[in-house]
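Morning. Coffee machine broken again, so started the prediction first thing and wrote up yesterday's gels while waiting. Chain of 362 residues, entered below exactly as on the submission form.
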Amino acid sequence: MIVETRYQDLYTPDDPFTMESGATLPNVTVAYETYGTLDASGTNAVLVCHALTGSAHAAGLHPGESTPGGWWDSFIGPGKPLDTERFFVICSNFLGSCYGTTGPLSIDPSTGRPYGMTFPQMTVRDMVTVQKRLIDQLGVRQLRTVIGGSLGGMQVLEWGVMFPDSVASLIPIATSAQHSAWSVGLNDIGRQAIMNDPDWRGGEYHGHGQPRRGLSLARQVAMMSYRSEREFAGRFGRAKRQENGDRFDPENIFQVESYLRHQGKKLVDRFDANTYLYITRAMDLHDVAYGRGALPDVLASVRHPALCIGIDSDILYPAHEQRSIAEALLSAEYREIASPYGHDAFLIEFEQMASFVREFLR
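Came back before lunch.
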């Protein structure tokens, strides 16, 4: 399946975007990909919402790619759980990211320089508002479902509250209705790592190079919450990089240290540090009930059929949070992934995820 990322101007100086904070953006461009064909009624679309460092490239091959680079390629395509012979699947890069949609890395038209830390703080509700305008322009009358994990699941829940007539069902996975103190604390450690790097330069690092050490450390902290003690024990144990090497050689580090440092470097090579700050703040601001009333009442107002999926080893968004969401929603079922892989299991445990989603969409 050959695909390409497309770009759509959704807001212009004559029709600016007003954000939840009250700030305005004169231009908003969105990067997105689609898979399959929209039917004549405009009601067979599925919106896939990505997580913190994800992009619009969810599936398929970009021209020149030898292997699929999409972050959920196992899940989207002909005969797959999100079957493109049945559904018109959409994945858009959310507002504030650095993969083609307007965000801190974009050029501020008033200065001709990247927004950097002058970009207005976006929220999950802002992301969903922009997504709604995109699907309207694509001719979608109603989404068959909205699906996403982690920050993607936060967007799913907001869809159910903000645009109830535009979606028929919801699939929030390993997510939160209100970002917990635990998750806020982990995000803040990552932000402090970036901002305490001298190369951050108060966010004015463009032209000088990324705050590589800070962003790498932020990613390593996050990775500790994306996986589990059980997986690390089985995968790494106390193994060293060189088992027969000098035990006291500072270069002969533990394999788990090597793994985390590798993950940090990978993110630095593909992501923007200021963008990481903005997205994690948007996650921390996430609260489905904010300005709407008590959380149980707000969730009970969502009348869509919903499939809530938790992960038994998730320490970032524990399974009890998913069960609580399912219990509060008016018409929800709960399923749980059994896995040693922690929060990332929804991207790894294909067979379990596929079984749950196929059954629900059937």
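The chain has a mean pLDDT of 97. Going to sketch it on the whiteboard this afternoon.
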